[in-house]
Amino acid sequence: MVDAVRLPLEVFYQREALHPHKRYLVQPLPDGQLQELSWAEVGEQARRAASWLRARELPLGSRIAILSKNCAHWIIADLAIWMAGHVSVPLYPNLTAESVRQVLEHSEAQLLLVGKLDDWPSMAPGVPDTLPSVALPLHPEGRFSHHWQDLQASAPIRDDPQPPADRLATIIYTSGTTGAPKGVMHNFGNFGFAANQAIELFAVGEEDRVLSYLPLCHVAERMFVELASIYSGQTVFFAESLETFLDDLRRARPTVIFGVPRIWTKFQMGVFGKMPAKRLDLLLGLPLIGRLVGRRVLAGLGLDAVRYALSGAAPVPEALLGWYRRLGLEVLEIYGMTENCGYSHVGRPGRFKSGWIGHSNPGVEVRIAADGEVQVRSGATMQGYYKEPEKTADALTVDGFLRTGDKGEQDAEGNLRLTGRLKEIFKTSKGKYVAPAPIENRLAAHARIEQVCVVGDGLPQPMALCVLSEAGRQEATNGARGLLEASLRALLEEVNAALDQHERLHGLVLVKEVWAVDNGFLTPTLKIKRNVVEGSYAGRFVEWLERGEAVLWHD
What we know:
Domain AMP-dependent synthetase/ligase: 16-386
Keywords: ATP-binding, Nucleotide-binding
Helix content: 25-40%
Catalytic activity: a long-chain fatty acid + ATP + CoA = a long-chain fatty acyl-CoA + AMP + diphosphate
Radius of gyration: 24 Å
Number of strands: 27
Protein name: AMP-binding protein
Distance between the termini: 58 Å
InterPro entries: AMP-bd_C_sf, AMP-binding_CS, AMP-dep_synth/lig_dom, ANL_N_sf
């Protein structure tokens, strides 16, 4: 089945021939101008870079690393690496120097392409002195072995290389909430299967627009932006920075958009910053006027043209999904992993079921193991972990199903609901097991809680460590702290009333730090590193329990 699908480079050549002058990539430049690249221009630059790479006479299948924030030349570089017969190894643009070195050395990278970065000086020490580098057009200050214009001086390759389905295309190093990252191997067949199916599922086409802002090195953005653009012909707009994000969004007016829960929350908080939640709620409840207000709010965000809105990486609070539906935007939840190209489950328009993700995607087999683990199998399933046969054997069953590590259940229609992580379940000192994820989802429904981590391993009773949203932090300092505490105490009572005795939270601890990638609390994909969170606060757990406060402020 994999051999029958259309493969990425084959489809790119078809797109290039079909509409060579159609706008493909739109890149904001530091001087405020926009660079628009057509399909023909992208193909020309990729072919010249591929020619330069071939001239280096590296062994077929050599690993070429890309270290850059999202930009047009990230995608062009990836295409060039494939055309030259090599394997791309993307790195997150916010890694520490140690993590950069770890990935480059483990993958045995032969070359590093460096592009748009915020803090190159802190990362550069992780690049081995012997590793040659190429500066992409948007690059930081520094010394590099070569520059993109050097590559463009080469005559373009004249053939249209079409690597077979079983040839390795990329190694994606998972960010990992614990331990060292693993290199997930995907071949061209994996990408082709997932992209072919996804484009058909969502009916994305040449007139669609997408904004690329989440890391392209992550599998979700790789599939939703890079591969989807090749297979659908959609135009890709790039975000310039966090500061210009809303302007970038309004310029692109995407018709399809993918976000993580924190992005959807930040959009909402931005709206509330301009109009109080109660007033907006009142207006949305008015006949006719409510629909008009909803459209205006979406237009202000640049989301008024969206046909498909997807959210992944973590569950979205049901109240937040409901808020967007009232505006007129249905946000569909998506479930997948790096190990299956992010292609597993997604909600279907008009078929929302509270608490459930949605149905499996076409071509995906699903089963629930005896221990409750969700296991999936499809043409998008990885080839394994690079240089990690034992971990590969742990992740894949004998009959080829991927062990997701998530516990879940299916209803009669095939909808999936996740109930926790197998390895995240902890045991209290009373010998009772607690799954934190469902409790965290309940707490995250509160508008003033942005991040939450339920802890309790070895403690008599669990407690929740919470990070307030920006609005919540403002309320805590401008005289509304009492009202906020009352609201959180009510939340605690409501959540505990729905839990078994051994699961009930002793209290909520409002920590002063905001958990971020920069301070090590989050992975580059914004997932909470439980071991870091627990390790940072473990010394206070007993003290906080003894204080016995329902809502406790971490001083």
